[in-house]
Amino acid sequence: MKPREVRLSTTPTDEEIAQLRLGDIVYLDGLMYTAREGVYMRALNDKANIPMELPSQSAANFHCSPAAVIREDGSFDMGAVTATASFRFAKWLPEWIAKTGAKLIIGKGGMSSKDYKEYFVPNGAVYLSTVGYGTGALLGRGVENVEAVHWHEELGLAQAMWVIKCNRMGPFIVASDMDGNCLFERENAKISENLARVYEGTRPAVLKRFGETDDRDEELIG
Q: Fe-S hydro-lyase tartrate dehydratase beta-type catalytic domain: from which residue to which, for each copy (predicted)?
């Protein structure tokens, strides 16, 4: 069945969030900001004032290091916007989501259903994942304008808080829902059911690398 496509504002209502289903393809309109460990530590640990009105201006936090520069005249040049693995920032997310009212956390790879149930669901937030690798240029097509960049002198361009105006930016895939279910865990469970049949009749490997095992129950599918 073809995935459902959804056009969503970066300041979505609770009703719009609740209607999202695992596997939906989402395109975003409105302001999105990048925030990862540098922003989290500055805002949460150092108690610096966040230079945006959140969530009224944006409820979409992108884990991203944009391929961008600030020109001498103060304007911006942004090409690709490549997502960063979100599990690296999980420890900051409960406080960040509660403090900023973020409803959409966007990145690569996702987290576990335990994280979603503990951090996301109580705050009415969901996780959107980029689709596949090498999509930075594709997502860059959805950048209508760079509105601002905050804390670049303190944090550097990669860790700074970029504010991006999006126009049908995507595709992103809904990887968590309001019950805390995880798309990747669900699909991996389906794959695991058939692993024994896939390997049936094969002989154990003769040459092995460090850490390899022939126990199919221990195999990881990413």
A: 4-185
